[in-house]
């Protein structure tokens, strides 16, 4: 076997297309890599392995080339391609130091079809030919199109005399399952850090019912990519063939290409949170910026333009040499610099406060007590804090269901009484394999929230979106439950929904969004402007004396009895002189996964599946993996603890803000 060739594979080409410098960092044990591309956690949550097996079943008679040795795989593929007609799974093709494995390769005479299979949802009505209004390729599909373009390029050069055509095989959201229990035909077996799918014996293309995959020809889009350019060095665009040649040469020689700093650096998988210590893995991001801008450790201790929350002009600022947040001007943000008005902070206020700690009143953080009290004026006790965990399963549970329809499998529910008492009143979880939990979820939630008329709270839009989708499901059901009308009425009473581009209907008990409260009235520099609950909670722990007094002792924080913690936890704790993130006090959801990998779950998922990534992956394991009863129980217990902390965190936010507002009013 030729061990000397370092191949530019399609996954490495994907990295290079994102940032050429990543080629140097990938695969090196000495560098931090937060990517979950090859993690069974992300694979489970996305459903990619099941979709891959479904694609194989859609091509009966295909021959699998699963040899890990490149030379062996290439030889087997070459032998199979001697046939006039053949279908190959994981066909291996090489051209120079470029190497690809095609998910599905079909040969018919001199015609070669390269089919790239992705667990990505597709709608012909919505997504069409993947081009936007101005003829540009849509950004959400561009990485997949570049992937298959690279494969076609390699195959065209490796197989002269053949006509190579490219296709994407995607999950068709316009189709629906015509059989029950389809997803349970694709079980998952975990072997170390690898996954394999165990298809139920007797499963054939005919037994699958209506095929849920769309095969879309993309030669025109690939032609656009192959005739376009790619970035190789800063401000240097090269034609596609030259660019991939440069990528392949750099990787084969293990030579780093120059850094290309941009806004994408903020999400780089090779980026450590801070300058790494000698005993820690190296940080590719810090190396890149040190080389590009001659920065030292002290420079990274300050906020950079990458920290600007929800700001789209980061790349432009970087190209202008504006690198540190303190260098950003009001003009850069298109902001007049005025103090927040009666409606609270705007996006520009939060961006500016990252750049300059110039908020009214000074101090460690900004809090608009008057604005908060005004927003709070209509709240009715008892207060209800709820949090949902959901999934979006690629292969549906039951007939009539579409791919990636929402599945609501868990909620937690805390109550705050007028006298200050806090109760973890109820929770619900259904992760039984093959069981569609949605209707029972709504029933349980209705029962939990219908005992009084107190105000209900959510954090961000997720809960409102989920309930509106469940309402649509109930209304569209061909076999609705007997209590459909009551459940729909309940959902409509606590949600808001758009009925036109200009009109929104609000139920009489519409949930209050605490994330909106945070965005308008509370800013702590440690959040970098983010309003994520998992960013806001640690900030509140730092800034609130009330939380320190209430939760600094292991007494359930005045809750009475927790539903999940037999022994109470002191949620306010210090470590290395810093207030600890309460979520770090919980044991990990997975005993076979490091905390860092679990915490990175959300970052490894696609945007459409990003809500609650770790919980979604846990749900997928509970659905598709044959787990021992004890391990299943431990995983479910971990899910319950995390969800309980989510709603307790909302309680903590209310308690902290109430205390801050009272102190502000007195002063």
Which keywords apply here?
Nucleotidyltransferase, domain 5, five-stranded mixed beta sheet, 36% helix, six-stranded mixed beta sheet, 4 domains, 667 residues, 24 helices, DUF2779, DUF2779 domain-containing protein, alpha+beta
Q: Can you lay out the helices and strands and say which pair or pack?
A:
Layout: H1 10-18, H2 22-25, H3 40-46, H4 48-57, E1 63-64, H5 70-80, E2 85-95, E3 98-108, E4 111-122, H6 124-127, H7 142-158, E5 163-172, E6 186-191, E7 194-199, E8 213-217, H8 219-226, E9 229-233, E10 236-239, H9 240-252, H10 284-293, H11 297-300, H12 314-319, H13 330-333, H14 347-355, E11 366-367, H15 369-376, E12 383-392, E13 406-416, E14 422-429, H16 438-449, E15 456-458, H17 462-476, H18 484-494, E16 496-498, E17 504-506, E18 512-513, H19 514-521, E19 522-523, H20 533-543, H21 545-551, E20 574-575, E21 578-579, H22 595-599, H23 613-624, H24 629-666
Parallel strand pairs: 1-2, 4-5, 12-15, 15-18
Antiparallel strand pairs: 2-3, 3-4, 5-8, 6-7, 9-10, 11-19, 12-13, 13-14, 16-17, 20-21
Helix pairs in contact: 1-7, 3-23, 7-8, 15-24, 17-18, 20-24
Protein name: DUF2779 domain-containing protein
InterPro entries: DUF2779
Domain DUF2779: 385-532
